[in-house]
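REQUEST ID: PR-0412
SUBMITTED BY: lab tech R.K.
PRIORITY: routine
TASK: structure prediction, single protein chain
INPUT:
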Amino acid sequence: MSVKRPITSPISLTLWQHLIRLIHPYVPRVILATGFSLIVSCLNGAIAWLVKPAMDKIFVEGRYQYIYLLPIAIIALYILRGLCSFLQSYLMRTAGMKLVRDLRDRFFSHLMYLPVSTISRSTSGDIVSRLMNDVGAMGTVLSQSLRTAILQVPSVIVLMGVALYRRWDLALLSFVLLPFIALGTRFFSHMVRRHRKRVQGYLAILTHRVNEALQGLRVIKIFGIEEARVNQFVRENRTTYRQMARVIRLREGTRFLIEVLSGLAVAAILGYGGRLVASGEMTSGDFFSILTAIIMAFTPLKKLGGAYTQFQETLGVFERVEHFLDYQQEGDQGRPLEGLKREIRYERVCFSYPGTDTQILQDIDFTVAAGKIFAIVGPSGAGKSTLVDLIPRFYNPTSGRIVWDGIDLRDISLRDLRQQMAIVTQDVVLFSDSIFENIAAGSSGRATMEEVERAARIAQAHEFISALPEGYNTVLDENGLNLSGGQRQRIALARAVLRNPPLLVLDEATSALDSVSEEAIQEALDEVMKGRTTIVIAHRLSTIINADQIVVIDNGRIVDRGTHRELMEGSALYQELYKTLGSSEEVNLTQ
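STATUS: complete
OUTPUT:
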């Protein structure tokens, strides 16, 4: 016999604890809003209660002198109810906004301290979607779901109390249908929760596609693949629509169920209550008072059903957010470190990216002596950049170890380790801040204008920066797209120069420069590298000719090592690379 799987996993105790902890800072607002909700509920009960004396005294007994007081009383009650409802709604909605604000702060802060290896397992679109869409949806817990519960539950209790007081047997007739409402709502809501998680996943894919298209717009246009990318987006967008439509059908199914059962309850009361009035067992005032209370009670019941469904949707989203927040951050435990005195040594280092069995690096052994220039060359995809990514521990070796002055990198404080180095890569990353702030980031934002200018002069960037209308206060576009590639590279170099680190890593750092700019910067780099430990990965071999040692890497293995002269005499691969990449440069091949 087959066993049916549950519709969705039950809400775990841990998830409840996290949710309660999330809401806890806003409890004072919730309590104050609850007070206004109770007033609103009492006023709803008062409106239903007044139906009997109004019917009996004015219309049955004919005391028409009170008919002018009735509209005034109703107006006063509705004004007071509206004011309390406004205050309750404002408090709960702003609490929801505060929750979203604080959760986004927490999410982004958590993101900044996650290991690169963890971040690389998610697409940028997925992370952005969780930060903006998923966290944004969490505001509904307070602004709508909890707000509705606080407002409507007391209203239902008060109104049902009025109905029971007037005629308990007639009121109980309507209560028979409540279990069916509860079970139906639970069924639809759990289905909504499961499908809502899928919707958020599809929205993350769409966010990634947009982000991917914006970053690769030039490639898309040059290769004429606009139609292919549009078709892919349209397919995934339609899949997202179908999932969202399914959520809406389930959500509206809850409302439909409550609507039908409400109609059955009103019909039963009309039938049974009408017979009691006709037989004289109950006054028309009592009957209409009960009927008003029941009808008014089913309206908040519908809202409660919708709120429960919405709460289940939010839980599905919250699970995605919590899953991300559960990722372990980088720890900063370890030995302090200051400077590089002897060497950095790779000892039989192997590396595979998380989740794959392909070895990117295999049995890497070499030593970088302090104060020397160490160069890494090899064909594209050989593993050169991965090799240096292991030093700041963006990733850890799969096996083997890397030691800094005899200390395993994993035993060193991460913050101290990274403060000992500066990295300049081919893919320059600049922030949408001023040029001053981008360069000052090299000293964690503590640099003076004089220090920033000095670094910019060394990087041959001061001249073009000064020529800009706002100079160092010029605000950059996204990733500095209002500058040329060479200008962006020089700002990145200035940032590294400002840091003045014991270890400088140049990963294709001059690849975006024209020959004139490269020559100028090479002179500056020669000055910066003097007496400093430098690891150079070079696209242009002229930048590594004067290195103290060069290793040639191919398919993740070191195949040759030596000085430029030694490799030119004994390494076929190095000679081939030199002829390919250095053919346009006026360099003496035998120097």
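NOTES: The CA atoms of residues 508 and 538 lie 5 Å apart.
REVIEWED BY: pending
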